[in-house]
Design a protein that fits this description.
- By secondary structure, the chain is of the alpha+beta class.
- It has one domain: tt1808, chain A, CATH 3.90.1570.
- It is built from six helices and ten strands, in the order αααβββββββαβαββα.
Length: about 180
């Protein structure tokens, strides 16, 4: 395979990953509106997203909070210090360097969520891991915003890649709006 064919194949893999991830996020929005609306922690949301990713990546493992590279703890260089990373979702082959997608998700219902995907960017820049695509998801599910707009929004950005960000919305029906009003925070 010449260099041009290799670049075209890599771009095809990236295009497939991006399309598959957007389809999975769309499914999450349509099937799990109540989960998103009631302010569920990002780990619960990421689990559902991982379930929707699995059919698209049947030859890979789809893991949540996975912190290993072979038998060692996964670490990357952040601000000149090695830090442990455990991305919210990884699409990869365990025990190998065949890594496809890394996802970091944050919810606006959690005020402690980081607004900048520092560790995700470091993971994508680290040549040891070889991820095709990285995705930073913002799940806009703050109680006041849902009640004002009557929809949930998920925004996706692809750090370290020249890919167009995306924005998806799902209307929240009356039943789920009542659950949002009753929500504690």
């Amino acid at each position: 395979m010449n260099e041009f064919d290799a670049l075209r194949a890599r771009q095809s893999e990236i295009d497939y990953c991006v399309a598959a991830v957007i389809q999975a996020v769309t499914l999450l929005l349509s099937r799990d509106t109540s989960l998103l609306a009631i302010g569920t922690h990002e780990q619960g949301i990421c689990h559902r997203l991982a379930v929707y990713l699995e059919p698209w990546f049947s030859t890979y493992n789809v893991d949540c909070e996975y912190n290993r590279m072979e038998s060692k703890v996964k670490r990357v260089l952040v601000d000149n210090k090695k830090q442990i990373v455990k991305p919210d979702i990884l699409v990869h082959e365990r025990l190998s360097h065949n890594n496809c997608v890394a996802v970091e998700a944050k919810t606006t219902s959690n005020p402690e969520s980081e607004a900048v995907p520092t560790k995700l960017k470091a993971l994508l820049e680290d040549p040891y891991f070889h991820y095709q695509v990285g995705l930073f998801l913002i799940i806009d599910n703050a109680k006041d915003e849902i009640l004002k707009r009557e929809y949930i929004e998920i925004r996706g950005d692809w750090p370290n890649q020249d890919l167009k960000p995306f924005q998806l919305r799902q209307a929240v029906d009356k039943y789920n709006l009542d659950l949002v009003r009753a929500r504690e925070c």
